[in-house]
Each structure stands twice: as C-alpha cells, then as structure tokens.
Amino acid sequence: MANRKQILIIEDEKAMLESYAEILRNAGYDVIEAEDGYKGLQALESGHSAIDLVLLDLMMAGIDGLEVLRTARGNEDTYGHVPIVVLTNMTSEKVIKEAFDGGADSYLLKTEMDQQDLLEEIAKKLGTEDQES
Q1: Annotated domain spans of the chain
Q2: pLDDT per residue over 71-109, tens digit each?
Q3: Residues near 91 by Cβ (< 8 Å), separated by ≥ 6?
Q4: Dihedral class, residue 127 (left if φ above 0, else alpha if ψ from -120 to 50, else beta)
Q5: Contact (Cβ atoms closer than 8 angstroms) between residue 50 and residue 86
Q6: What is the Cα–Cα distance from 79 to 40, expressed in whole angstroms?
Q7: Fold for domain 6-126?
Q8: Is the CA virtual torsion 11, 42, 133, 129 positive or negative?
C-alpha cells in the first residue's frame, strides 16, 4: 500500500492505547500514539498535514477529550481539520451532544463495538470502505 493512512490515537489507558495501535497497524495503518490530551494536541499541531484521522478518548487526566476536541476544532489553522472519532464508554446524552457540538465526526462506545466495527468506522470516515483490510 503506497499511500498508507496515518491515525493518531489519543488514549490515556496504556493497555487500550496499545491494543488499538496493534489493531490499526495490523490493518495496514500507520499509527501515532499519544497517552494524554496534551501530547495528542502536540502531535496534531506538529503533524496535522500527515494525520488522516484521530481516535479520541474522552476521559483523560489533564486535558480531557472534550477539551481536545474544542481546542482542535476551534483552532483549525493550528491543528488542521481531520476526522475525529470519539472512542469512549461515556453514554450520557449530554456528553454525546457536547462531543458532536464540539466537532466530533463520530461517537463510538468501546463496550458496544468490536475490532471489525472500529475498522469499518475508520474506513467510512477515511472514505476507504471499499478497500477491505
């Protein structure tokens, strides 16, 4: 695959971060790992032209996912405009609305999806769903 897509994962739970990274690498994606919101925003700022999609956890220490979302979407000159897929266990209607109002492109519940669901959602957001992995 000559033009590999690059995905930034912002997830503070190390085991989850490594698990998602492995799934995505096995599916042929390049992965950047950020273990908190600060590092996620730094990665997005320095490499947004090369990042094709962001997977974003909401519950993180320091800057939470909603703040990362608002910061990235409110400063697109700095962070670019890439699809942001929220990946969380938060089911509150208020939080879901806040995420979409903040600019999330998709909202997935970790507990209600498997590896295939994740890969399908990513492919859909990247416009590559016709390319089977």
Answers
A1: 6-126
A2: 999 999 999 999 999 999 999 999 999 999 999 999 999
A3: 109
A4: left
A5: no
A6: 10
A7: Rossmann fold (3.40.50)
A8: positive
